Automatic annotation (TrEMBL):
Gene Ontology molecular function, alphabetical: pentosyltransferase activity
Organism: Hydrogenophaga pseudoflava
TM region(s), chain numbering: 12-36, 94-114, 121-141, 171-193, 213-232, 342-359, 365-387, 394-414
Compartment(s): Cell membrane
Cross-referenced InterPro entries: LipidA_mod_glycosyltrf_83 (IPR050297), RgtA/B/C-like (IPR038731)
Pfam families: PMT_2
Glycosyltransferase RgtA/B/C/D-like domain segment(s): 73-232
Classification lineage: Bacteria, Pseudomonadati, Pseudomonadota, Betaproteobacteria, Burkholderiales
The protein, known as: Glycosyltransferase RgtA/B/C/D-like domain-containing protein
Keywords: Cell membrane, Glycosyltransferase, Membrane, Transferase, Transmembrane, Transmembrane helix
GO BP terms, alphabetized: lipopolysaccharide biosynthetic process
Membrane-topology annotation of the record: Multi-pass membrane protein
Length: 428
């Protein structure tokens, strides 16, 4: 894609001194944060903590030993429980894993940026991720964002890596996406996003289309191998097929029910007696009926949920709130929230410039259907339909960083142009 104002062109990532320094910066900032801020599970972190403890101590995935659940996807809990089983019930190994995942995200994002846009974009996208305050704060949070982001980016890296055969690429990417789906089921359709995007972006004719269709099928089979054992577990639990988690209908209801603001809502107590799978079915049917009742209102809610997704970023502080207060004092919580909000706004401005740069140089089709852009649109569309929260935009933080890096390069090109104009001799 020729949308690089000052880049040498797409190529495989080179580990230059600049990239090593950026990686060291990412590691240093996260180590400093983890050393300073204690892990005190909060909000969803309390659930992940409870699930991991119950799984290790009693062999049950659920809040209590005698009440197994399928409401939450199990992938993140499997990671935490494995560390609890190996090292005991302590948080330091989880922090170490989260830092490793963070560095992995920086590495894979840089690989993708180099492959699609070039080395300069790779280094700058790594820098954006390294210094992104919310991501710096995430190692002390028990959450699904880091493993999901790493796995989905790694799958795209494997899908497009040039040195492996087509079959190997598709199968490896599918296996990784299977694990990503166990973390968040939104990964289930990513083979279509990646394969479809590459076919449309390259416009290579029937051969490219057939190649990507074959890759989608192979990746889907590999994903099925990973997901099938958990689906069987759920079938034994309910006597019906629940692919990964039973919260799909409930998240649809949260975003589409009378009185919703698009965010999380507590489910009605009148359905608390129902098994989780039946509760999800009932609430899902209610949500669908509510959508069909007034499609215009549904469209208005979709816009509101779009704004919820993109107009704020304070989850890194909020979910670290007890630890932040213990480490720095209560006054620092709003200050850090202002910092994360300001940096998110700055990154978004860079993304706008980066998109403009890509559209101008690569054209509409190559920009829109790049797997980088298309995956952002995919995750955005999901949360315009179901429940929305600010943290869900972290699912595409790597892709966002690449677009922000394009924006930085464009700003640098503009600055060089302005400087050249300012120093040009005036005509006599």
């Amino acid at each position: 894609m020729n949308n690089r104002p000052t880049d040498a062109g797409p190529a495989e990532l080179q580990w230059t001194m600049s990239l090593w320094l950026v990686t060291f910066l990412a590691l240093s900032l996260r180590l400093i944060w983890a050393w300073w801020v204690p892990v005190i599970p909060n909000s969803d972190g309390e659930a992940y903590d409870a699930f991991a403890r119950t799984l290790v101590q009693h062999g049950t995935f659920g809040w209590e030993p005698d009440h197994p659940t399928s409401f939450w996807p199990p992938g993140t809990t499997f990671l935490h429980a494995s560390l609890f089983a190996l090292f005991g019930i302590r948080y330091e190994p989880i922090v170490a894993m989260n830092i490793a995942l963070s560095l992995g995200i920086v590495w894979v994002t840089a690989r993708l940026a180099a492959r699609f846009w070039g080395q300069n974009v790779a280094v700058l996208s790594a820098l954006v991720l390294a210094a992104w305050p919310t991501l710096v704060m995430y190692p002390t949070i028990l959450a699904s964002e880091l493993p999901f982001l790493f796995l989905t980016l790694l799958a795209l890296d494997l899908w497009t890596v040039p040195w492996a055969g087509r079959t190997a690429r598709a199968l490896l990417a599918g296996l990784v996406l299977g694990f990503a789906a166990l973390v968040r089921p939104q990964a289930l359709l990513l083979p279509l996003v990646y394969g479809g995007g590459l076919a449309l972006m390259n416009r290579g004719g029937r051969g490219v289309l057939l190649e990507q269709i074959r890759s989608v099928v192979l990746a889907g089979l590999a994903m099925a191998v990973v997901v099938a054992p958990w689906t069987w577990r759920n079938y034994q639990l309910y006597g019906e097929t629940v692919l990964i988690s039973s919260n799909g209908g409930i998240t649809l209801w949260m975003g589409n029910t009378p009185g919703t603001d698009g965010r999380y809502m507590v489910t009605p107590k009148k359905y608390s007696h129902l098994p989780e799978n039946e509760r999800a079915q009932v609430l899902g049917q209610e949500a669908k009926a509510y959508i069909l009742q007034d499609p215009t209102a549904f469209a208005e809610r979709a816009v509101k949920k779009l704004l919820i997704l993109y107009t704020n970023e304070s989850v890194g502080v909020g979910w670290n709130s007890p630890g932040v207060r213990e480490a720095f004092g209560e006054a620092w919580e709003p200050r850090l929230k202002r910092l994360t909000q300001a940096t998110w706004g700055l990154i978004c401005l860079l993304v706008v410039v980066g998109l403009w740069s890509s559209l101008r140089r690569a054209g509409f089709v190559s920009t829109l259907f790049s797997p980088i852009t298309l995956s952002i649109l995919y995750f955005t569309a999901i949360h315009m339909v179901v429940v929305s929260q600010e943290r869900y935009h972290l699912a595409f933080a790597g892709q966002w960083a690449i677009l922000a890096a394009l924006g930085l390069l464009q700003l640098a090109a503009w600055r060089q142009g302005w400087a050249a104009t300012a120093t040009r001799p005036s005509p006599q």
